[in-house]
Amino acid sequence: MRRTKLAEIEKLGQAAYPNQFSASHTIPEVRTQWDAATGEALEAERTTVTVAGRIMAIRAQGKAGFATLQQNGQRLQIYVRLDAVGEQGFALYKLLDLGDHIGVSGYLFRTRTGELTVHVETLTFLAKAMLALPEKFHGLADVELRYRQRYVDLFTNLDSREVFVKRAKTLRALREFFDSRGYLEVETPMMQQIAGGAAARPFITHHNALDQDLYLRIAPELYLKRLVVGGLDRVYEINRNFRNEGVSTQHNPEFTMLEFYQAYANYKDLIALTKDLLKFVAEQVNGTTKTVFNDVEIDFAHIEELTMREAIIKWWPKEAGNTASMIMFESSEALQQALLAALHNLPEAEPSADTKGDVASETSRDGVIIDPAGPTYVETRRHPRTAMVFTAAGGHLEDGVPVGKVIAELFEAIAEPHLIQPTIIYEFPTAISPLSKQKPDDPDWVERFEIYCGGFELGNAFSELNDPVEQKKRFEQQLAERERGDDEAHQMDEDYVRALAYGLPPTGGEGIGVDRLVMLLTGSRSIRDVILFPLMRSQGNRDQGPGISDEVQG
RNA sequence: GAGCUCGUAGCUCAGCAGGUAGAGCAACGCCCUUUUAAGGCGUGGGUCCUGGGUUCGAAUCCCAGCGAGCUCACCA
Predict the structure, then answer these.
(1) What is the band of A423 on the pLDDT scale with cuts at 50, 70, 90?
(2) Counting runs of H as helices and runs of E as strands, what totals does chain A give?
(3) Strand B: which of residues 117-156 in chain A lie with Cβ below 7 A?
(4) Any idea which nucleotide's C1' is nearest the CA of A363?
(5) pTM here?
(6) pLDDT (tens digit, 9 = 90+) per residue, A2-36?
(7) Is the C-beta atom of A4 closer than 7 angstroms to strand B?
(8) Which end of chain A is more exposed for a tag (fewer CB within 10 A), N or C?
C-alpha cells in the first residue's frame, strides 16, 4: 500500500530516498524566532523559510490542506494549497502519510485561529514511513512497546523525549561540576580480569585470541584508586557497570555510575561536596532545586544529615514505645534488651485470620502506612511487620551475627522507607564496610555515608581504606567467604594491594547512581523510563508489533 | 525466584452470565481552499499471545507455556 504510494511519488519526479535537504531553519528555530510575531508583522515581512520534519498530523480539505511537522520535539503547521504548490506539488501532498519526512519552503503567516504556519510554495519528499504510526491522541501507551521500540516512543511521546534531554543535561552538569573543581575525567577497563569494587555477581565473557575469561566490571573503584596512587589526585568516571542480578524498577543489569575520588579528602568533605553537587545538577537540569517524585515534592536545597543510629531512633516504630536510645547500639546485649522491650510494648495483633490471609494489603506495608511527607507513622491496628523486624533482629543477635550488621538491618527495615527527602546517613558499622576507614576514636564505626532520596539509595561514599596490610587481610576474609559458597565475595586482587603498598594518600571516594538521579530529576518511577534501551527478555522468533516484511516484500 | 494483574485490528480500547468479534483513531474511495483530536458519506482490515483441555459450540471457562507491568524476595 505505502509501497505503491512511494512508487507514485517517484513518478512525480521526487527521489524516493533523497540524500540531503538544505533547511534554512530548524523547526525549534522558527518557533523561537517567530512565535511572538503577529499576523500583521508576518505579512509585512513575508519571511520565507525552508524547514524539514516528520508529518505528525495531516488534515486535507479538498484543494488545500494542513499538516503538522515535527522536528527535535517541536511542531510547526504547514498549509498547502493547490494554487500555491501546483498540480505536481498537490499530487505529492495527497500521497503523503503520517510519519513521512518532508521538506517545505514557503512564507510564514498566521491562520484565522492564530497559529504560526508555513504557507508552502515548494514541497520536497524526504523519506517514507512504511509503517503506520500509533494513534495520534493516546500515542504509544503500551509500556513494553515503549521500551522495545523506543524509536517510536521518542517521536510520539514527547514527554519521553524530554526525559532523555534531561538525562543529557544531567551528564553535562555532572561533568561541568567536576571539571570546574580540577577533577580529571578518566576511563578505566570495563572488561576486567578480576571483578572487584563491589559485592555483586558479574557477567562473564571470553577473549578468543588470549583464550581468557573476562568479567564485565561491577565497579570501577579499584582502578580509580590505582589512579590516585599514580598521582591523579582528583579523578571521576561516568560509565556503565554490569551486575548479573534481577531487574526491578530500580535495577537494570547495565547501569550508569558516577564514581569520583579526591586525595586528601575524607567523608566529611564529600558530604559537603555531595550537597553542592545535587543542588547544582538539579538547578542545571530543571532550573530549580525542587522536583516531584512519586507525587512528593523533593528539594535538593535542603539535605538532612543523620547518623545511622540517629535515623533508627528517629523512626523507631511508635507502637514500640520509648524503647530506643543510643545506649542500645553499644553492645549486642544492650540491643537485645531494647528489642525485647519493644516487642513487649507492641499491642497484641488482631486475630490471625485478618493478618495472615491478608496478602493483598502488603502494599500498605503490613499495616504500617508510610506518610511520605514526613517521619510519621499512621498507625493501623496491626504491627506484624514491626514484630517480624524485631524478632528477626533478635534472632540474628542470638545466632552471633555481628551487632553492626544487625544495626544495618534495622536501619534498612525501619528508617530507609522514610528517606524520601534527600538525606545523608553517615557513620556505618565496620561490619558491613570492608573498604572503608574506621573512625579513629571508635573502630566499630567507619567514615562512610550514603545518600538516600525517594526511598532508595542514590550514592555511597567513604574515607578509603589505604592500609595495604589491612586490605590484604580483608581480601583474605573475602576469599574465605567465597570458599563457603558466597559467589559475591571479593576475589583477591594482588595488584591492587601492591598499588596500595606504593602509598594511597588519604582519599575520599563516592559513587552515585546516575540513572537513579535522573529518575528523581525527571519524576520517573521506573529506571527503565530513563534508560533508552532497557534490557528486555528476548522474544525469540515471536513477532512483536508490525513488521516491515509485509510492506517491503508484499 | 514468589504473588497479583494484563495480552483482542497498525494504535487506544470495548466485548468475558460460552453461541463464529466491535468502536474511535489510522488506512482506502468520494466531497470540502484557514483546519487543528477538522467534518460528512462509504469501504476494507483480526493467528482474539501460543499450545492443550472441557463443551454440540471457547476471545470468554480450566491447565500449561511465552511476554509484560506492579509488589515482594534477591541485589547496591
Answers:
(1) very high
(2) 18, 21
(3) 117, 119, 131-145, 147
(4) B71
(5) 0.90
(6) 889 999 999 999 999 999 999 999 999 999 999 99
(7) no
(8) C
Beta bridge partners of A49: A106
- Residues of A (162-191) placing their beta carbon closer than 7 angstroms to any atom of strand B are none
Phi, psi at A392, each rounded to 5°: -65, -45
User: What are the cell numbers at A421?
Assistant: 527527602
pLDDT digits (tens, 9 = 90+) for A246-287: 889 999 999 999 999 999 999 999 999 999 999 999 999 999
Asked whether A518 and A167 are in contact (CB, 8 A), the reply is yes
Q: How far apart are CA A362 and CA A368, in angstroms?
A: 10
Question: Residue A362 CB closer than 7 angstroms to strand B?
Answer: yes
Residue A436 DSSP one-character state: B
Query: Residue A62 CA to nucleotide B36 C1', Å?
Result: 16
Q: Please give the radius of gyration of chain A, using alpha carbons only, rounded to the nearest integer.
A: 30
Distance CA A56, CA A100 (A): 8
**Rounded distance in angstroms from the CA atom of residue A549 to the C1' atom of nucleotide B61:** 37
Ranges of H-type helices in A131-253: 143-148, 150-156, 158-179, 221-229
- Residue that has been written with the C-alpha cell 534481577 in this structure: A246
The residue written with cell numbers 564485565 in the block is A216
Task: List residues bridging with A445 in a β-sheet.
Answer: A429
Least confident range from A15-29, A466-480, A519-533: namely A466-480
- Type of residue at A433: S
Task: Write b or e for each residue in A370-403: b if 16 or more Cβ atoms lie within 10 A of its Cβ, otherwise e.
Answer: bebeeeebeeeebbbbbbebbeebbebbeeeebb
Q: Which residue is nearest to nucleotide B27 (CA to C1')?
A: A132
The whole-angstrom separation of Cα A21 and Cα A23 is 6
